[in-house]
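Reopening this one. Same input as before:
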Amino acid sequence: MTESPVPLFEEIVRVGPPGDPHGDLPVLVDTACVIGGSVAGLLAARVLSDRARRVVVIEADEPLAPGGSRPGVPQDQQVHTLLPAGHLWLERWAPGITEEAQSRGASLVGADQAVTAFDGVRQAPDGAGHHLLAIGRPLLEALIRDRVTSLPHVSVVWGRATGLQYADDAVSAVEYAPGAEGDRGDGSTEVLEADFVVDAMGRSSRLSSWLKASGYTEPHLERLEAPINYATALFERPVTLADLATAGALGLFSPEYPSGGVSVAAANAIEDQQWLVMLMGYGKSRPGRTIEEFRAACAGLPGVFSEATAGALTRDVVTYHQAESRRRHFTQASHFPARLVSVGDAVASFNPIYGQGMSSAALHASCLALYLGGEPDLSTAARQFFELQGVVVDAAWAVSAGGDAARLDAEKGTEVPDDVRQQRWAMEQITAATLLDGEVTRAFNDVTYMLRHPATLADPAVLARAVAATSGRP
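Same output, byte for byte:
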């Protein structure tokens, strides 16, 4: 019988810094290198700072200004809401960062100011007192980067990683082209000797090709069609956070709902007295590509979206397209070098509408802390780490990819096995019940917020309560 992943997931969720940073914590490596300075890479660097004498982050995109956009994160101008779990874990690794974000204008949105609605019907309150951090991605990333790089033995090297070197079946160095965006103009490369390397190169990570070229196993890449089209714009917000009835709104719309092709809409009150508003469509639907189309689409949605887009435009519409969700199965790689792991989107990148990216990155950091805390044998491949991480990836994939697969099957009329059909029916009951029963909402939100494993929704008591709530309703 397969052991339940729930206890291990809950252990990972509880992981934090290993106590007094000035204590006698065993140092495991001399130099650790993190390739990629996005959220996942920075959090990995924070974890490694407790276990390495020196941590070097190699980042190709040097921001032009504090909080500026980076070419390596093409989605950073879209809506980013830090889910309650991600907010909790970020505060755990960088205490006080929430207060600092608020001082820069970000909004800590409580349940009384947050609305989630399905086809215009508001979700029943779950009574859990969760908070969302509404903030622009560039600002959040800048705050994390400042915190991590302020540590005395963490530094950033601007350059583009070009390959790895190995010795005794383990990673021994990282090759990189120095300079902003990895281009000095003379084609030169440098070598950073490293005792531990983290791939945080994101969705387009080149690690698999490097491994294959060096005779190692290329992790299997799983793809799931999920064609999504984002359009996001910024608007002046004359009303202060305290005076807003709604400061964070998420609207989800079924294909039958007259939403003008909008499948998901989100509005967040972020820094600089602005509204960040996003419209998303599936497949051929591309809502709001111009500001006229954008405001017209919002006019047909619940009132908060018209309110949010009424102010003056502070940044024009920015679009983003993603064709598929991806995950790389590192646990299946039979021949893998020691002292090497991968985190964040380099492992799994989901449909971003589920908001799991940054929270998953934080949990990958927790997996790394748990792995290193066990003082592992670093002369062998980090299989224990990838097994821990696999529990997190499986959980996130079950929520996002499961929903996308169900939508695709419904669109194409695909027949699915009975067990899959029953699982989807149960999830439909639970989702519908969140509009009626706060206890069901709490169980559902705990999973979508990544506080609990999706397997907890299989509890017969949860399903029975959901069916009872929806009984007699169409």
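So the earlier flakiness isn't reproducible anymore. For the record, The radius of gyration is 22 Å.
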